[in-house]
Amino acid sequence: MSKRLQVLLDEAEFREIRRLARQRRSTVAAWVRDALRAARQAQPSRGAEGKLRAVREAALNEFPTADITDMLAEIERGYAGEPR
């Protein structure tokens, strides 16, 4: 279900948003939805504590490691189609 949102803007701000929407060949409503979506996506999905918990959990695992020079050379050989 869609919900209506009413936002009050001063005239100059509305003109600028309308100009930006026209540049994109879009409506003001579509421009505002896109701007709100982008702002929402720019927000971190977790707080600092959630991120720290994820890092701590990852640190409990063991991952294969190698010298960075060796790893990069192996990656390049893979791109070139060379055998390991």
Write up this protein.
This protein is mainly alpha-helical and 84 residues long. The chain has one domain. It is 63% helix and 0% strand. The protein has four helices and no strands. Helix 1 (11-23) crosses helix 2 (28-42). The longest helix has 15 residues, at 28-42. The N and C termini lie far apart (54 Å). The model has no long low-confidence stretch (mean pLDDT 90).
Task: Provide the fold topology.
Blueprint: H1 11-23, H2 28-42, H3 48-59, H4 68-80
Helix pairs in contact: 1-2
Domains, number: 1
How many helices in DSSP terms? 4
Structural class: mainly alpha
Q: Helicity, in percent?
A: 55-70%
Q: Uncertain segments of ≥5 residues (pLDDT<50)?
A: none
Q: Please state the CA-atom Rg, rounded to the nearest Å.
A: 24 Å
Beta-strand content: under 5%
User: What's the end-to-end separation, in Å?
Assistant: 54 Å
How would you characterize the largest beta sheet?
none
Topology order in helix (H) and strand (E) letters: HHHH
Short description:
By secondary structure, this protein is mostly helical. The protein has four helices and no strands. It has one domain.
Features:
84 residues; mainly alpha; 4 helices
